[in-house]
Amino acid sequence: MQAFKTLTSTAVPLPVDDIDTDQIIPARFLKATSRDGFGDNLFRDWRFDSTDSLIVDFPLNNPVFEGQILVTGSNFGCGSSREHAAWAIGDYGFRVVISSFFADIFKNNALNNGILPVQLEDEAVRELLHAIQQNPNLKLTVDLENQVVTRDDTSQKFSFEINPYKKLCLLNGFDDLDYLLSKQSVTSTYAENMPDWRILKR
Amino acid sequence: MPTLFDKIWQKHVVTQVENGPDVLFIDRHFIHEVTSPQAFDGLRKRGLPVSRPDLTIATADHNVPTINQHLPISETLSRKQVEMLTTNCEEFGVELYGLGHPFQGIVHVIGPELGITLPGVTIVCGDSHTSTHGAFGSIAFGIGTSEVEHVLATQTLLQAKPKQMRIHVDGELGEGVTSKDIILYILSRISASGATGYFVEYCGSAIRRLSMEARMTICNMSIEMGARGGLIAPDEITFNYLKDKTFTPKGEAWKQALNEWQELYSDRGASFDKELYFRAEDIEPMITYGTNPGMGIKITEAVPSSTKIEENSRENFLKSLKYMGLDENQSMEGTDVNFVFIGSCTNARIEDLRAVAKLIDGKTKAENVTAYIIPGSRQVRDQAESEGLDKVFIQAGFELREPGCSACLGMNEDKIPKGEYCVSTSNRNFEGRQGPGARTILASPLTAAATALTGKLTDVRTYLAQTHASI
Ligand code: SF4
Fold first, then answer.
1. Which of the 8 DSSP states describes residue B293?
2. Which residues 6+ apart lie within 8 Å of B413 measured at CB?
3. I want to staple B221 with a disulfide (CB 3.0 to 4.6 A). Which of A197, B183, B280, B444 is the partner?
C-alpha cells in the first residue's frame, strides 16, 4: 500500500449528502477482474448523460476545479460494500476525501487503499465547500502525522480524528495482511480449540 | 453485563492489537464473482494459499443471467467474471455452488437455507447485505475486497468493536403489514445514516413472533440505516428452522451447539450505546418516495413537504424528488406503475413467493405491468415448483425466472428502463440502482403483488377489502 504522510493540493467540491457507492461506481462497471481503470467511470451517471456526453455543470467536469482532494457532503460512501468505489476514487487521482461523516465500510476500504478519509465537523465542511467554490485555487494541506487540515489562504486549521492503528499503517504503507499473517500461529492454536459444532462440514 | 453481541465477539477474539482493533476469527466466509477476483489475485501475487477452504463458501449470483442459465453467458465481461470465479475456486480448492449447481443462489439466501449460517458464529462476505445472517444470532457483516483477501489468507480480520444499539418493536402487526414494512418504517424514522457506526440488536414481542425468513428481511436492511449489521437473539423458531438442514451440525455436535445457543441473549442490565422503541400498531404498509431507503412513507401518506425537511438537507430532498418525478405533498397511491420486481436477498425466499402466490392466485396482472419473480436460489425455485406456485405465477402473467441478484442491482440484462417506476421488494432505491434513470419504489412483496395486479401503486389492505381476497 502507498504510504500517506502529507499532501498539499487544490480541491474539488461535491456538495451532495448521502452519496452511495452506486453513484461513485455504478454496478454495471463492476465486471472487471483487476483493480485498475475504475477512475474512468467514477460518478459515471453524474459525469455523463445517456448519450455519453459530458454534463458540464457537474463539478468534476468543471475545469476550474481540480486537485487530489475531494470535499463532499455527509454520509459519503453509504450502500454497497464494493471496494471498487475506493479504487475508482484513487484511480481518478484523489488521495483524500473530506466529509462530515463516512459510511463504515467505505472508510475501511479507503484506508486499505491508501486513501485518507478526513472527517471534519459539518460546519467546517460547509465552510470549506463554500471557500473552494469562491476560490478554486485555494490549496489545502492535509497533514496526517499531526491530524490537521490547513487552508493556505487564512492558515485556518481543522483537526481530525483517526484510529491510531490505522494511522500507523497509513503513515508507513503497512497493510493489515502483514500483521494478520504474523499472527498465524496464534490463529492456528485458536482454531484447534474451537468447539466441533462451529466447524462447517460438507 | 454482556450483550448478545459482546458474547459472540468475545468468543472470536484471537488476539488484540495494542491500542487498536481485535483479530477476529471468521467461521464462515461467503464469496461471489464480483468482489473476489482481485482478492485471489492478491493471494497469487504473494504466493499464499486459501487458509481454510473448508470455511469458504462460493456462489455466482450478482452477475448471472436469469434466463437460460444452462447456456454460456452471452455478455463477454460477465461471462469472464463468472469463469474467473470457477478458475479461482479450482486453483485454490474452494467448493463452488456455481450456475447449474442445486445449491446456487444469492449468497444471503443460500447460507441460511443450507444451514451454513448458525447462531453464535462470525460470518463475512464482500457484500454489505451479509447483515442478513444476523437474524440467526450471529455476527455477520459486509467487507471490502482487501478484507476478503485477508480472510482468504488467514481466516481472520482486524476489526474495531463497534458501538451497539438496540431497537425494540413491541405489539402486533396489522393485516397486510409485514417485516419489510417494519424495517422501512424504522428507516423512515431514523434515516439512512441513523445507525452509522453501530451494530443493531432487534428485540421485542413483534420481532419474536416473526418467522426466520421475516427476521432475515429486517436484518438484511440494517445496512440501509448505516449499521454494519443487525442481529436477533436465537430462540425456538431459530432452532426449529435449522434442525436437519443440509449442513447444520448433527448428533452430538447439534446437542453441543444447542447448549451454547441457549446462552445467546443480551443479559438483563446489558448496556447499549443507544436504545430505540417502536410500536407495531403504528406501522402500515410502507413505500419509499426518494433515492435512499430512509426516504419512506406509509402508503396512505403524502410525500413530505420541503418545509418539513431540515434546511441543510432540502436541496438533496428536492433533487431526489426531481429524479423520482414526484412533487412534495403528493399522494403516491394510485400512481401508474409498469414494472414490478419481486426478488433479492431481502424478499425472494420461499415464504415471500408463497405470500405472493396466495394473493395473486386465480387473478391476472394488469396489462401495462411487467412482473418479474426472481427466486433467491435454485432451492427456492425448486421448492416453488414442487408446491405448484410456478403455475400460479404463469397463469397470473408473472414471469418466474432463474435465481440471482438480477434487477436488484442491474448488473446483468435485467434492468428497469429510464424514467419508469418499479415497485421492488429489494433494499435500495438509489439513483440508477435498477438501471440508469430507473425509479425504484421499495415495498413489501404483498404491496408489489397487489400493484402488479392493478397496475397502480396499491395499498394491499384496500385491495383485500375490495376483492375479498385473503393473505
Ligand atoms: S440481491 Fe441485491 S442486495 Fe442482495 S446481494 Fe444481490 S445485489 Fe446485493
1. T
2. B65, B75
3. B183
> Please, which pLDDT band fits residue A76 given cuts at 50, 70 and 90?
very high
Burial of B439 (0-12, 13-18, 19+ CB in 10 A): buried
Best CA proximity match to B320, nearest among B194, B431, B443: B431
End-to-end CA distance of chain B, in Å?
Answer: 42
Task: Round to whole Å and give the CA distance between B140 and B157.
Answer: 12
Q: Are A115 and A94 in contact (CB under 8 A)?
A: yes
User: pLDDT tens across B106-157, in order?
Assistant: 999 999 999 999 999 999 999 999 999 999 999 999 999 999 999 999 999 9
How many other C-beta atoms can be found within 10 angstroms of the C-beta atom of residue B71?
9
Number of CB atoms found within 10 A of residue A47's CB? 17
What is the DSSP code (8-state) at residue B113? Answer: H
Q: What are phi and psi of A131, to 5 degrees?
A: -60, -40
Given this model, what pLDDT does residue B470 score? 79
Residues B3 and B232 sit within 8 Å (Cβ to Cβ): no
Q: Considering Cα of A42, then A44, then A45, then A46, what sign does the dihedral take? A: positive
Sheet holding B139-142, edge to edge: B96-97, B56-59, B28-31, B122-125, B139-142
H or E element in which residue B96 lies: strand B96-97
Radius of gyration of chain A (CA): 19
Phi first, then psi: what are they for B146, rounded to 5°?
-60, -40
Q: Residue A98 contacts by C-beta under 8 Å, 6 or more apart in sequence?
A: A11, A69, A70, A71, A72, A118, A119, A120, A125, A128, A140, A149
Q: Which CATH superfamily is domain A6-201 in?
A: Aconitase, domain 4 (3.20.19.10)
Substitution site in B59, B426, B429 for ligand 1 pocket (most atoms within 8 Å of beta carbon): B426
Grid cell locating B277: 422503541
Contact between B171 and B37 (Cβ < 8 Å): no
Between CA B231 and CA B206 the distance in angstroms is 15
At residue B14, the 3 state secondary structure works out as: strand
Q: Residue B242: CB within 6 Å of ligand 1?
A: no
Give B109's Cβ-side CA count (13 Å radius): 30
Task: Determine the average pLDDT of the residues in B178-182.
Answer: 98
What is the tens place of the pLDDT at every residue in A2-31? 899 999 999 999 999 999 999 999 999 999
Distance from CA of A156 to the nearest CA of B (A): 24
Helix (H) or strand (E) holding B5: helix B4-12
Closest chain A C-alpha to B122 CA, distance in angstroms: 10
Q: Tell me the CA distances in angstroms from B306 to B43, B303, B314, B319, B328, one per residue in order.
A: 51, 9, 6, 11, 7
One-letter identity of residue B285? P
Domain spans, chain A: 6-201
Count of A-B CB contacts under 8 Å: 212
CA-based nearest residue to B278, from B197, B175, B190, B217: B190
B451 within 8 A of B443, measured Cβ to Cβ: yes
Q: B232 CB less than 6 Å from ligand 1? A: no
